[in-house]
Design goal:
CATH superfamily of the largest domain: MetI-like
Strand content: under 5%
Number of domains: 2
Strand order of the largest sheet: 1-2
Distance between the termini: 25 Å
Number of strands: 2
Helix content: over 70%
Shape: elongated
CATH architecture of the largest domain: Orthogonal Bundle
Length: 276
């Protein structure tokens, strides 16, 4: 008979088994760490340590969420931010992966371009905004450039690194079997570099998400970042807090529900880790 902490399961009360199941569930593991934070937040508001207008409580944020959702403002702004991030990320991948493969496969290209990659990667996306405003103004092109710029360099860096770390024996084995160059590229280099490419995509999207919000705050006319910055005009701290919470939840869903499983599946598929 299976046991729990040395006690037969049949002897554990029903309510105890239910509580144990809840505690060990994925939902509890996800939400559990936030419960003390929300409780402390509500307690500080209850004690009125700060004026309510400057420090709204969880109930106020929920009320604002319902109000902005009912009016259609929050769904529209959220859609605008997600579409911009997806478009910028797609462009960054389309540019970054081929460029990273070129650098990783060609020694002369690596020696020429690698210092440039390191140099421009060190220049933060926000540093480009002043000059972009002069070039493109308060337009979608400015935000798109910032996102693509932020995503492309982690993808290039990790793709080139993945290609250059592929064991040379694998390439020679494919050559000894008579595989042409295009076949070696598709069957050896791309699969071998794929775990690094996915890691670069995950990092690039994280940086791109923060860059998008900063760009929306400065140059946007819609989006979650714009909503937060626009709330300052009416002094609506509750909308600012709501925007911050929405940003955190959305990225947690994207990273934990899509990017992290994709990264794990890719690494396991190509033998980088074992289940044992």
């Amino acid at each position: 008979m299976s046991t729990a902490a040395g006690v037969p399961v049949a002897e554990i009360p029903l309510w105890g088994r239910l509580a144990r199941r809840v505690v060990t569930s994925s939902a509890w593991r996800t939400l559990g760490p936030f419960i003390p934070i929300v409780a402390l937040w509500a307690a500080v508001v209850r004690l009125e340590i700060f004026p309510r207008a400057f420090f709204p409580g969880p109930v106020d944020v929920l009320r604002a969420f319902g109000d902005l959702t009912y009016k259609g403002i929050l769904p529209q702004y959220l859609q605008d931010s997600v579409v911009r991030l997806a478009a910028g990320a797609a462009a960054g991948v389309l540019v970054g992966v081929p460029f990273g493969l070129l650098i990783g496969l060609h020694a002369k290209s690596y020696r020429f371009f690698w210092p440039l990659v390191i140099f421009f990667q060190a220049i933060g996306d926000i540093a480009w905004l002043p000059i972009l405003l002069i070039w493109f103004g308060f337009t979608l092109r400015t935000m798109t450039f910032v996102i693509v710029y932020t995503v492309v360099f982690p993808v290039v860096f990790n793709t080139a690194l993945g290609v250059r770390t592929i064991p040379v024996e694998m390439v020679r084995a494919a050559q000894s079997l008579g595989a042409p160059r295009w076949r070696i590229l598709g069957d050896v280099f791309v699969p071998g570099a794929l775990p690094n490419i996915v890691t670069g995509l995950r990092n690039g999207l994280g940086y791109g998400w923060r860059a998008l919000i900063a760009a929306e705050i400065i140059v946007g006319t819609s989006g979650i970042g714009f909503m937060m910055f626009d709330a300052r005009r009416s002094g609506s701290v509750v909308e600012m807090l709501l925007g911050m919470i929405v940003l955190g939840i959305l990225w947690y869903v994207v990273d934990g529900g899509l990017l992290a499983p994709l990264e794990r599946a890719t690494i396991q598929r190509w033998g980088m880790v074992t289940d044992g």
